[in-house]
Amino acid sequence: MSKAIDNLQAAQQRAMAVRPRAGGFPYLAETLRQAGVTRNLWFLPACQSLYLTEDGPVATLGTPLVSGTADVPPFNREALISALRTDQAGNSTFPEFLASCWRAGVVRYDVDFAARTVAYYGCAGEEYIEDYPAVKVAQR
């Protein structure tokens, strides 16, 4: 494995150990930021993630949400916000969150760790951007 992969996986493990069940995303994000991750780009429904890090880019392929050919759901801002609030309350798993985003018409999202924002995009240029709070996480 490369230094970038080792560093990313170690940061993900640290984050999972310190993040609370509810409202845990900012802790994950801060731990990744401290480890030198600058952006995280997700592509749905493939569940492909691209981490841009100081040590180099890393791609992660998860279990796709659909197989074969599928219609793209229309972008639904209210459904997306509902999926976000459910996840933020600790009432969904990450795969459930991704599936809810897809059903809300999200085809990709972009986490900017420096700006502390997540931008969600539909296929026709729709966009919803949400800030997340700064949190303190002990340096490794």
Q: What's the short story on this structure?
A:
This protein has 140 residues and is an alpha+beta fold.
Provide a descriptive summary of the structure in words.
By secondary structure, this protein is of the alpha+beta class. The protein is 34% helix and 23% strand. It has a six-stranded antiparallel beta sheet. Strand 1 and strand 2 (48-53) form a beta hairpin. The chain is globular and about 45 Å long. The mean pLDDT is 93.
Question: What is the fold-level CATH name, i.e. the topology?
Answer: YdfO-like fold
Our count of helices gives 4
The secondary-structure class comes to alpha+beta
CATH architecture: 2-Layer Sandwich
CATH superfamily, please? YdfO-like
Radius of gyration: 15 Å
| Proportion in helices | 25-40%
Cα end-to-end separation: 21 Å
> Biggest sheet: strands side by side, in what order?
3-2-1-4-5-6
Strand-residue fraction? 15-25%
Count of domain modules: 1
DSSP summary, beta strand count: 6
* Level-1 CATH class name: Alpha Beta
Annotate the secondary structure layout:
Blueprint: H1 3-18, H2 25-34, E1 37-43, E2 48-53, E3 58-61, H3 77-88, H4 94-103, E4 108-112, E5 117-121, E6 127-131
Antiparallel strand pairs: 1-2, 1-4, 2-3, 4-5, 5-6
Brief descriptors of the model:
140 residues; alpha+beta; YdfO-like fold; 6-stranded antiparallel β-sheet; 4 helices
